């Protein structure tokens, strides 16, 4: 359910009422039955009609021991417990996938849960080290799937260069290859540089020259069925994605590896808007979530867009049905 | 002319032949007459017809003393000398503006010219400290002008956090305000955060909490006719620009201040593609240039797009004709 003081419950009720959601899927919601019912009644009172009725949904009603005092910390604690329980449930059912609502990291921190995001909790809970934060969107115009994988995720910008190294890039490319191989035997992957103009031969930053160029060459030699391009100038790296998104005849690539959060997320959101889905790859199951935050400023107003949640559910189903991807790590 | 081993001469000949270029403007090209003529003949031999004939252009033919041996360093030296001469000429004529072709920083460096870009040479040549690198594009769909100013420019990513401070942000906002005031008396400016989710209250980076939040508040108090929003989450900061670019009824803002090169340039290029123009603000004259590089990989093939050069010329004329902007610093 994510953080219940945000737009999570609203977009879930809206999404589960949409006719875009695949049939023959069993949904189980993990959260507070009472809160979900309250959200439903509130949204109905605002005049909203296209909502799933909580009465018709299977809810794993979780009582969280922390005081239910509507504080940030209380919502932080409950959203953390919902995630832990949901992971437990998904692990029990081999054909299941997890879709998560948005949470607030600050609220988690206030509640004493020091994780930088849901992805990190998932990796720890599954005992997996090499997971990937992949943003994926299917173009409604061309049907092309636009994929951006992040090499680093929720860290301060000044930490990015220190965190990156050859081993990390290789592990992310391995994950990316496995993901793309479920769609395409000979994928084309692009890698963005770290610095402006990909360092411009060392003038605008040394990482490309020092190790990133070499890292890509050595990985390429071991993975000859992948066409690997990069490191490319970050500011033009996504131009081909714009074209592939909107033009059926444009050249298509299978994915771009971004060096840091905003380098990948800015073009993803600008190009794919509400169609973008956050997917965790490398786990024993598929996990997706909408690519936006809790939207505290618009929570309770009835105006939240549910398209990203709809896409998250559709992507979870589509990817889970593709058995080749599962259990590769 | 920029670097003559790149696509500069080609896009100049294409642009000056376009009927989008305003009439009654006197152009003076600074570069090698011989090289421009050679480019013209070569492109004609490939079958290209929509080209300005160098015979009909005013050319300030500059003989550069470095050996004309077609080396990177030789092209680096000549493109540097063309810029210096062009600045000299523009300074002589009050109503003139400078449009520059793309150069290669590595070639400049090889020729012993240690500047990180043309902007830095311009600032030094004009004895101005506070200049701004502004990217601007006029939407062909809505006529809205999309502006992104960079707080830091051509530096390695790991240097960005060290370079930023309150004084720098205030000086860039001052420049941005003056620019926007030429279009709008009460502009709306947005400021992107530095870190993912604008630091998420200190969890994902400390700069916003330590000083950026306060820097915006103090500037806002001194500039009450500006609606200032930020620091905003970088990955959704440009979503409103996408809408304003393509929808006449969408809410419009006057500009976004980006913290670093790729944060601003990625969304600019994804949204505005070839319409984006690099403008230097804060100089005693207006300088624009296309927002792409030398395109060495496609130079001489006749396939370079001249739209960004056409937009650069149009923007230089439009902004120069607006006298309010000139000599404000």
From TrEMBL, chains A, B:
EC id: 1.1.1.262
Gene3D superfamilies: Isopropylmalate Dehydrogenase (3.40.718.10)
InterPro entries: PdxA_fam
Protein name: Putative pyridoxal phosphate biosynthetic protein PdxA
Family to which this protein belongs: Belongs to the PdxA family. PdxA2 subfamily.
PANTHER family: 4-HYDROXYTHREONINE-4-PHOSPHATE DEHYDROGENASE (PTHR30004), D-THREONATE 4-PHOSPHATE DEHYDROGENASE (PTHR30004:SF6)
Phylogenetic placement of the source organism: Bacteria, Bacillati, Cyanobacteriota, Cyanophyceae, Synechococcales
KW NAD (keyword) present: yes
Keywords on record: Metal-binding, NAD, Oxidoreductase
GO MF term set: 4-hydroxythreonine-4-phosphate dehydrogenase activity; metal ion binding; NAD binding
């Amino acid at each position: 359910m994510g953080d219940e003081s945000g737009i999570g419950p609203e977009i879930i009720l809206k999404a589960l009422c949409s006719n875009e959601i695949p049939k023959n899927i069993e949904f189980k919601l993990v959260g507070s039955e009472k809160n979900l019912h309250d959200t439903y009644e509130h949204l109905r009172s605002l005049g909203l009609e296209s909502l799933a009725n909580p009465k018709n949904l299977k809810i794993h009603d979780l009582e969280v021991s922390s005081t239910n005092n509507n504080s940030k910390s209380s919502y932080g604690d409950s959203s953390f417990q919902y995630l832990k329980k949901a992971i437990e449930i998904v692990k029990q059912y081999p054909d299941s996938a997890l879709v998560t609502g948005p949470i607030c990291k600050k609220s988690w921190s206030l509640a004493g849960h020091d994780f930088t995001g849901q992805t990190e909790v998932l990796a720890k809970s599954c005992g997996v080290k090499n997971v990937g934060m992949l943003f994926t969107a299917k173009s409604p115009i061309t049907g092309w799937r636009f994929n951006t994988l992040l090499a680093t995720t929720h860290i301060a910008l000044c930490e990015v260069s220190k965190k990156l190294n050859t081993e990390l890039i290789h592990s992310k490319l391995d994950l990316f290859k496995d993901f793309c191989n479920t769609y395409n035997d000979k994928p084309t992957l692009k890698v963005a540089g770290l610095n402006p103009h990909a360092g411009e031969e060392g003038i605008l930053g040394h990482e490309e020259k020092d190790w990133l160029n070499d890292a890509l060459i050595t990985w390429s030699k071991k993975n000859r069925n992948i066409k690997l391009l990069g490191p490319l100038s970050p500011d033009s790296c996504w131009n081909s994605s714009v074209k592939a998104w909107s033009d059926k005849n444009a050249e298509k690539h299978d994915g771009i590896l971004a060096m840091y959060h905003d380098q990948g997320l800015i073009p993803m959101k600008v190009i794919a808007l509400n169609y973008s889905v956050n997917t965790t790859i490398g786990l024993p199951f598929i996990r997706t979530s909408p690519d936006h935050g809790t939207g505290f400023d618009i929570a309770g107003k009835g105006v939240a867009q549910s398209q990203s949640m709809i896409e998250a559910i559709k992507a979870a189903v589509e990817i889970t049905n593709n058995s080749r991807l599962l259990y590769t790590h």
